[in-house]
Structure formats: C-alpha cells, structure tokens
C-alpha cells in the first residue's frame, strides 16, 4: 500500500512540472531514442518534445511510394514543431509544393533548409519558403529542376540574411536570378552553380566583398562574365573545373583581378593559355593551391610564370598535362619558395631524370603520384549551420 502511495505521489509531482522544466529535461537527453520515448509519455510531453525539437531530417528511401507517405506527414510535423532551426528533406523527389504550406506559421525560427533533389518543388513552393522562413541563412536547392529565376527573386527578397546557397544542376536559372540574389542578399558568402549552363557570369556583376566561395564547375561562363566574378568580390576559393566556352576563347586571364584568391581549381580547362596563367600568377599573390591538371594549353612560359610570381603557392596539381617537361619542373623548382607538394603523374614529357633533379634541388617538396578531383573546403562544412 505504501509503495502504491509513493507511485501516485510521484506521478502527481511529475504532472505538475512546468513546460519550461520539462523542456530543460528534454534538452539534456542526448540520444534520439530517449527523445522519442520522452514524447510518447503523454500528450503534454509530446507537445514539449515538439517545442524542443530543433532539427528535422527525412532520409530518402529510394521508394516513391514511401516518399509520398513521408510527404503527407510533413505539413503536420512542421505545424507541431514551431522551434525548428534546421530542416533537411533531401532526396524526397515526390515532395509537392503543398507540403511546405505550414511553413507560413512555423518557419520563422528556421535557419537552414535543404531541398536537395526535391525535383517536385517549383517556384510556388520556394515562394512559400520565402514567406514563411525570413531568417534562413543556408539553403540547398541542388537538382531542383523545376525552379526558375522567379524562385530566386522571391527567395532573395524574403530571406535577405542568406549566406550560403546551393543551386547546383538547377537548369532553369539564368544570370537574372543570380543577380537578384546578390542585389537582395548583401551577406551572401557561398554560392554553388555547378552545371548551371545558362549562366554567362553577368549576374555576378556588383557582387559584394563578402562573397568568398564559388563552385561553378561545368558552367559556360563568358570572358566578360569571368571579369564580373573576379572584380569587386572577396573570393578566396574558386572552382571552374571543366569550364566550357561558347566561343573557344580563353578569358581566364580576367581572374587576375581576384586579388584575395587562395585556392583555384582550373582542372580540365582546355582553353587555358600561357598568357592567362601568367596573368593569374602575377595578379593573385595569395594563391596557395592551384589545380591545373589536364590543362594542355600550358607550356613552358606558363610554368615559368608560376615559378616567378607564386611566392605563397604550397600545392600545385599538374597531372596529365601534356606540355609540362623537365625544364618546366626546373622553373618551378627555382621559384615557389613555399611549395610543399606537386601532384604529378601521366606527364609524358617529364623524365625520371627530371624528377630526380627536382627532388635534389627541392628535397622537402612532396611529389605525389595520385590525382585529386576536388580541392578546398568540403561542401558539407560550408553548408553546416554554425
């Protein structure tokens, strides 16, 4: 009898705990299973769990039927989770615009939103995000094939604090949409436009000095567009891997205006010439890592310019460059005083004797025989909410 009375007393005590007290307890729970169990205790604890939930992640099932069921649940979950600061719906290809409707009442605390590969989302869905989530700083829209410049217009006007935006493979966007981002979001720091082949680069005109990181792999940027990207920004990292050219002309020398550039990826830029290499080498004094792998247009004058001007260069990638030779290695070895590593393999004109002489003259430089496809900071870190 005494034990029953103690149990009833304990139950009554718990029922009188305030929501603030329960929320404090919930926030101390570390595992997901413990937090789920907390919410299943009773209706009030379920409400407190929803108040305490800061992050929501749906994982792609690769099953359209299951994804559709997930999509049906999302509006209700969002409506009951008013304090979320991060949502990831990545991979839900069946997600419709209507699933985002409750963001109008529950999205004000949201800072990070991923719609990666949500190909069902259109401009209407992004308009709801822009209205309901004014405090977003990180947005991922990669492979949202149905969004256009209209979506970027509404997003930029509704989320002016935006800092990181991933538009990779969004085929419908043009320079007009990119221009809207820079016009309305003065704090934009990171932008990914990989595979956006309708961009010339003109949309970057007037980008602010806070702009630091650009991924533009497999884009078709014009010489004037490259000039707009380099001038005015504070770019520290630039990836132009597999840059395409509609004219067949090399405009990469315009990057010499990017005075703050530290990491530059020009891998497989087949139109790159010695003149542009020399312009970049002399105009970008802070370069620390430069990927020139498979750049067949670089000859001895280009390699000599790197040795002459790149005094802070630490890592150089020259894999499979057809026109680097023993004399080119000698020119690099006579310069680049801070050089730590050269990634070199598949270079037919470089002999074993040339490699041996380079090693004798620069014994502390590591010759690496493997090829690196990407350089610089990881995308995950750039889009992580701090």
UniProtKB/TrEMBL annotation:
Residues 86-204, 247-360 form the F-box/LRR-repeat protein 15-like leucin rich repeat domain. It comes from the Eukaryota. InterPro entries: FBXL15_LRR, Leu-rich_rpt_Cys-con_subtyp, LRR_dom_sf. This is F-box/LRR-repeat protein 15-like leucin rich repeat domain-containing protein.
């Amino acid at each position: 009898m005494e034990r029953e009375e103690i149990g009833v007393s304990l139950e009554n005590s718990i029922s009188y705990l305030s929501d603030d007290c329960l929320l404090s307890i919930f926030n101390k729970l570390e595992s997901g299973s413990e937090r789920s169990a907390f919410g299943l205790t009773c209706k009030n604890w379920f409400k407190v769990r929803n108040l305490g939930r800061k992050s929501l992640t749906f994982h792609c099932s690769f099953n359209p039927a299951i994804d559709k069921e997930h999509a049906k649940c999302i509006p209700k979950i969002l409506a009951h989770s008013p304090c979320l600061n991060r949502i990831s719906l990545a991979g839900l290809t069946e997600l419709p615009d209507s699933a985002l409707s409750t963001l109008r009442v529950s999205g004000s605390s949201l800072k990070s939103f991923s719609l990666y590969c949500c190909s069902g989302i259109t401009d209407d869905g992004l308009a709801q995000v822009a209205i309901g989530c004014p405090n977003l700083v990180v947005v991922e829209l990669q492979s949202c094939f149905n969004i256009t410049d209209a979506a970027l217009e509404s997003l930029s006007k509704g989320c002016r604090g935006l800092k990181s935006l991933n538009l990779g493979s969004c085929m419908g966007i043009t320079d007009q949409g990119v221009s809207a981002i820079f016009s309305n979001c003065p704090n934009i720091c990171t932008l990914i436009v990989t595979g956006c082949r309708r961009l010339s680069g003109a949309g970057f005109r007037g980008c602010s000095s806070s702009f630091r990181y650009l991924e533009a792999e497999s884009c078709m940027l014009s010489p004037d567009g490259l000039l707009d990207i380099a001038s005015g920004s504070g770019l520290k990292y630039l990836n132009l891997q597999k840059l395409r050219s509609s004219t067949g002309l090399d405009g990469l020398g315009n990057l010499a205006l990017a005075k703050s550039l530290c990491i530059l990826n020009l891998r497989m830029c087949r139109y790159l010439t010695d003149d542009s290499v020399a312009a970049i080498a002399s105009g970008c004094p802070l370069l620390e890592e430069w990927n020139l792998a498979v750049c067949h247009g670089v000859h001895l004058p280009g390699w000599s310019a790197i040795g002459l001007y790149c005094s802070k260069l630490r890592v150089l990638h020259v894999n499979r460059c057809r026109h680097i030779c023993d004399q080119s290695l000698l020119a690099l070895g006579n310069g680049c005083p801070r050089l730590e590593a050269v990634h070199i393999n598949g270079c037919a004109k470089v002999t074993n004797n040339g490699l041996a002489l380079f090693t004798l003259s620069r014994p502390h430089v590591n010759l690496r025989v493997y090829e690196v496809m990407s350089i610089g900071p990881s995308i995950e870190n750039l889009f992580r909410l701090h």
